[in-house]
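Suppose you are handed only these lines of text.
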Amino acid sequence: AAPLLQVEDLKTHFFLGTARPFGSGRRLLKAVDGVSFSIGAGEVLSLVGESGCGKSTVGRTLTRLETASGGTARLDGREILSLSQAEFRPLRREIQMIFQDPFASLNPRLTIEQTLAEPLRIHGLAQTRTEARALIAETLQLVGLDPKVMERYPHEFSGGQRQRIGIARVMILKPRLVIADEAVSALDVSIQAQVLNLIKDLQRDSGVSMLFISHDLGVVRHISDRVAVMYLGRIVEIGTRADIFDRPSHPYTRLLLSSIPRIVPGRKRVEDLGEPANAASPPSGCAFHPRCKFATDICRTTQPPAHAVDTGHLSACHHIEALQKDLA
Ligand code: SF4
Ligand code: MG
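From them, the structure of the protein bound to magnesium ion can be written out as follows.
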């Protein structure tokens, strides 16, 4: 079957600084620079990388919060990036975003009922208040909250509860694609697992497709069907969860994995993550080369194409063979 979402050669570029006469002195930031992936119906693809790698910009471009500079994104075969905002409006219900900071995204002056009734009204999903309240009560239960909380205000809730409300606001619309951007990063570690399990359960039960954006491979480990690793605007490795965690085939993926404490129990970071490069002045050739212990001359001059390590497992590295010997 065709994937629900097919993204091809997506580019989102920004100009930095203020415009000067004759276009001088403006630097181009290639936040997303040729990203391709697909997400099947009911599938969870995680997008992982350090802060500034462009992963949030991918999510924001797909929800039309940013404007794409190039490429295509098809939802059910329909190209969405070239639609005008008016043409895109009917699709807003289908593509929903869960944000990192649930408090910032909840209006402190609205009760939970009002908060959840608003999207229902905007998308015409409830005709009467009774109908809306029934849907709201059902959705609150779904996210593990007592329907009675409807009468309360956001400040009365803990961070974890607020994120449950944020999730309810998305799920009440029965979207087809959910983009979760660092959905548990702002929560206490003790709460993270609970909210992650909730997201996974809701995703599995509803069959919604998900793009799960996170800087933390430890967090994506249990939630993902497939994982894409991003570095400076590009996907450097993509594969199934087992490909990425058991057979990582890009030096950057290895570096990220080495920084998850749980993977090497009893040891601290086995490698220093080093300074992430700056997207505004990316290194030549393979952008990862200043941090890579496998780098050779070709890495400094030539951008590596994506090589198939196996079916559906791609790595953009010149030296996959050397890497495989290193792992053995
Ligand atoms: Fe390292 Fe070269 Fe592979 Fe880039 S292409 S990850 S620098 S070995
Ligand atoms: Mg981000």
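What can we learn from it? The first strand starts at residue 5 and ends at 16. The pocket of magnesium ion (ligand 2) is lined by residues 56, 182 (CB under 6 Å).
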